[in-house]
Amino acid sequence: MLREPTLLYWCRATGKERDDALLLKQFDEHRWPVLRMATVAQSADLPALRHACAAARDLLDYASQALPGQRLLRLEAYRLPVLFWRYRHDWLAEDVAEPIGRLHNHVQLLDTLCKWFEYSGESQACAEALGIHRNSLRYRLEKIGELTGCDPYKTNDLLRLYLGTQMITRHD
Fold first, then answer.
1. Which residues are CB-contacts of 50 (< 8 A; sequence separation ≥ 6)?
2. Is the model's pLDDT at 126 over the cut of 90?
3. What SS3 string covers 40-77?
4. Which residues contact 20 (CB under 8 A, 6 or more apart)?
5. Within 13 Å and on the Cβ side, how many CA atoms surround 129?
6. Which residues are listed as membrane-spanning (predicted)?
7. Domains of the chain, first to last
8. What does the pLDDT average to over 151-161?
9. 151 burial type by CB count under 10 A (0-12 exposed, 13-18 middle, 19+ buried)
10. CA 27 to chain centre
11. DSSP output for 4-44
């Protein structure tokens, strides 16, 4: 029997220590079908709680498309991607993300760019994670610049590339 996924908003008392990974493990042990858990900061009042619930819903939506294998999601780690994910269909956001579309058929370059962001532009760490030499990484970044028209070494272009990668659907 296939059931629709449901959302449960669970508010815990402030000041309580929490281990969300342990909680997910306990759910598994009890065979409770929790696919994903999103956490947000505590809310001071009802309007803030409404915003927190909306943010959690947006985070789960983002994760279902962009991070399908990730079970534990913390809003503080994904605040910027979730913000732009929410508005990804807006004409202005689509225009900002347009250069990333040019990498659609260049999966290796798109993966390289995502690793570049994951490692905060640290060339050596990024190259090692990709299993390539730093010169190969530099070559790939130059190729990304040629194809997208955005220089990954310039702040405005880098931000545009970053936002674009956050608004696309990826299934790694």
1. none
2. yes
3. CCCCCCHHHHHHHHHHHHHHHHHHHHHCCCCCEEEHHH
4. 37, 39, 72, 74
5. 16
6. none
7. 20-82 (no CATH), 91-167 (1.10.10.2840)
8. 93
9. middle
10. 24
11. -------PPPTT----HHHHHHHHHHTT-----EEE----S
Spatial CA neighbour of 134 closest among 144, 145, 123, 119: 123
Could you read off the pLDDT of 130-145 as tens digits, one per residue? 999 999 999 999 999 9
What is the rounded distance in angstroms from the CA atom of residue 37 to the CA atom of residue 30?
16
**Residues with Cβ < 8 Å from 109, sequence gap 6 or more?**
103, 140, 143, 144, 147
CB 65 within 8 A of CB 15: no
For residue 135, give the H/E element and its range. helix 134-148
Q: How far apart are CA 17 and CA 4, in angstroms?
A: 31
